[in-house]
Sequence to fold (326 residues):
Amino acid sequence: MESRLNNMAPSVYAHMRDMGAVVDEANIKVREAMQGTRSSYVTRWGKLNDAIDSIQEAEIVVIGGRPGSGKSAVLNLLVEDIFDQHLNPYPTLGGYFSLEMPAYQQVIRYYSNSQKIPSKQILSTRNPIDESTYESLCGAGNTLRRMNILFYDIPLNPESIYNTVLDMLRNNPGVQIILVIDHSRLVTGNVAKEEEKIRYLMFLCNKLKNQYGVITILLSQMNRDIEKERDRRRMGRSLPVMADLFGASAVEQFATTVILLHRPEMYGVKEFMEQDAKNMLIFNIAKQRNGWVGAVFLKSDFQYYDVHDGNTVAITNDGVIINFVD
Fold:
């Protein structure tokens, strides 16, 4: 028994804070919010802003969906908004781990969206773009150059990502760090079960959140159960739920906000919840630690990697329509 006690982890008593110190910290955070000095990022989507207010320091936002649901497009638009100095004028540094595709492809998607040219056309060798179009794309790229983002596009293990963010914090004091991971299942690791790897990744992201106020935006894959409906006529006619996420238990435990994307058109659905399903993209807010949960209906045009409010609605979990966006 004595040897077991000697091998236990050391006490953290010396690092514990009394209630007064914690109250003082809470009051500082409230005053920062009052004065507009607290890092708080709004998006281009008014309906999403109404639902989540904003993305703030010390949050983990998980965006989940099946392949083809628009996860990467939504992520890139969200990152663009966060680093838009007119929309969110905070000193911010991003660490973007693009583990699914080369970093330059993320820029090509931005070109497609901003110039309304399909990415296939931008990179076509059979029907190449002209010099004028090329100059327009380069002009759009100059807008991106002003965004303080560092890219890495080779898969890493969770410890390497964690230590990289610590280096960013050390070298950029006073700057809000945004960690972007696309996506969780492509993080490497030496564990037998993939769920354990995701749990460890989420644990480290949570540590960065609690200790340093880091914001993490993480893409997460859905498991295939969402497409195992025996009656294929019913497939895609219900919203995805938390259990549909791969590694759902870890995500559910650590995430501040979970947004599950759903495109009914992928399953041939013409009408969803009495709404025209054409170009519909649903943000199902399955978890929000401090707020509203329900579905936000947006419009998509993935030819140009675009998502916009359009004539959309927000619906609570009990099916009540709460308002419209003009």
Summary: The CA atoms of residues 93 and 172 lie 8 Å apart. The chain has a mean pLDDT of 85. Residues 194-212 form the longest helix (19 residues).
